[in-house]
Every structure is written in C-alpha cells, then in structure tokens.
C-alpha cells in the first residue's frame, strides 16, 4: 500500500469533533461558505440564521475546541426541514466530515420529531450528490436553469428528499 501526502497530514490531525453552532461561529462559517460556493453569504446572514429558532446548525472542529472545519445548516418548520448549506474546508474533505455532519443532523432531527429532510443541489456537483445518495436521499425533481455555472451557463437544481422516520 502506498501513502499519499493527504493520508499523512490527516494522520497528524485531531479527530473531528462536532458541536452545535453558536453566534460567535458566524464569521468562520461565512469563511467556509465563501471558500466552497461561487456566491458567498455574509457573516451577518449566518448570524441571522443562527439566531433563528427554526434553524439547526452543527459545526465540525479540529478536535474539541478547535477551529471550525465544516458545518451544516438546516431550517424549516416541523415536520419538514431543509438543508440550506453544507461545506467542509478543502483541506479536510474526503475524511468523512461531510457524512458525519449529515448523519448527526438526521439523527437529531429524527429525535426532535421531524419527518422529512429536503435539499437542492447543483446538477454535476458529484461530491455532494455522492454524499447525499450515500446518506439515503432520493431525487424528487429538477428545476432546469436554477443555478449558473462559473461560465454563466444555466445548470439544473436537483431536489432531493430523505424520510427520517
Ligand atoms: C460535499 C462536501 C460537503 C463533502 O464533504 P466531505 O467531508 O468531503 O465528504 P465525506 O468525506 O464525508 O464523503 C461523503 C461521501 O461522499 C463521497 N464523496 C466525497 N467526496 C467525493 C468526491 N470528490 N467524488 C466522489 N464521491 C465523493 C464519499 O465517497 C463518501 O461516501 P462514503 O462515506 O460511502 O465513502 C464537500 O465536498 C464540500 O464542502 N463541497 C463544497 C460545498 C458543497 O458543494 N456543498 C454541498 C452543496 S448542496
């Protein structure tokens, strides 16, 4: 078996820890979001969403008390919830953080009595589609031209659903 540099840097890292997001995370979450999406959200937008009682947000950190390396933000009214955003720092991708964020969120929402989790993802976003399919989401529809790619070309949004009960 051969070692890749990413295996070695990962072996040095503290295992990820997970905790609910708090208002003080807004700046860090805006940074993670801006590094992952073409259209960023301001820290103020994260502050507003984190303060909203209809939101649930989980942060992954580099070990307990470490800096945020990923997050998931959901919003909705029972019994339905929607994933608004999930992102993992590029340096930390491929190590199971995204999957843990989605699975921990599904478990928490199910325990709170939510029945269904929805999301929309850009067609062609292979890492995200793989993450959601592995987590049991199924396509329920498409919105052609909902997004624009880096070159301004229209790209469909794929709507997905996961029952939590
Ligand atoms: C999508 C994203 C959150 C995945 O996070 P991650 O921590 O790298 O994902 P994980 O390591 O937990 O992998 C989850 C599953 O997806 C698959 N996957 C992850 N990256 C992949 C890639 N580049 N290509 C194919 N499959 C991939 C993995 O195989 C894994 O399945 P497994 O657990 O059965 O092996 C991350 O790529 C990201 O932040 N992307 C930019 C933001 C984004 O697109 N968010 C989603 C918007 S809807």
Structural overview:
There is one protein chain. With 165 residues, the protein is α+β, with helices and mostly antiparallel strands. It has a domain at 5-118: Aminopeptidase. 32% of the residues lie in helices and 34% in strands. The chain is built from 5 helices and 7 strands. It has helices at residues 5-12, 26-36, 43-51, 97-111, 126-134, and strands at residues 17-20, 55-61, 68-75, 80-88, 116-122, 138-148, 154-163. The chain has a 7-stranded mixed sheet, sandwiched between helices. A hairpin with a 4-residue loop joins strand 3 (68-75) and strand 4. Helix 2 crosses helix 3 (43-51). The chain binds coenzyme A. Residues 36, 86-88, 93-99, 121, 125-128, 130-131, 134 line the site of coenzyme A. Coenzyme A is lined by residues 36, 86-88, 93-99, 121, 125-128, 130-131, 134.
């Amino acid at each position: 078996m051969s070692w890749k540099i990413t295996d070695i840097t990962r072996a040095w890292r503290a295992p990820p820890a997970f905790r609910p997001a708090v208002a003080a995370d807004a700046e860090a979450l805006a940074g993670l979001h801006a590094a992952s999406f073409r259209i960023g959200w301001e820290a103020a937008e994260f502050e507003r969403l984190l303060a909203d009682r209809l939101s649930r947000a989980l942060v992954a950190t580099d070990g307990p008390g470490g800096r945020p390396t990923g997050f998931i933000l959901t919003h909705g009214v029972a019994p339905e919830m929607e994933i608004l955003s999930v992102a993992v720092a590029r340096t930390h991708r491929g190590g199971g953080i995204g999957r843990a964020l989605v699975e921990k969120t599904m478990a928490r929402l199910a325990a709170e009595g939510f029945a269904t989790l929805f999301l929309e993802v850009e067609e062609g976003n292979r890492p995200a589609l793989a993450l959601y399919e592995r987590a049991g989401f199924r396509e329920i529809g498409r919105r052609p031209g909902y997004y624009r790619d880096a070159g301004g070309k229209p790209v469909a949004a794929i709507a997905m659903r996961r029952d939590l009960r």
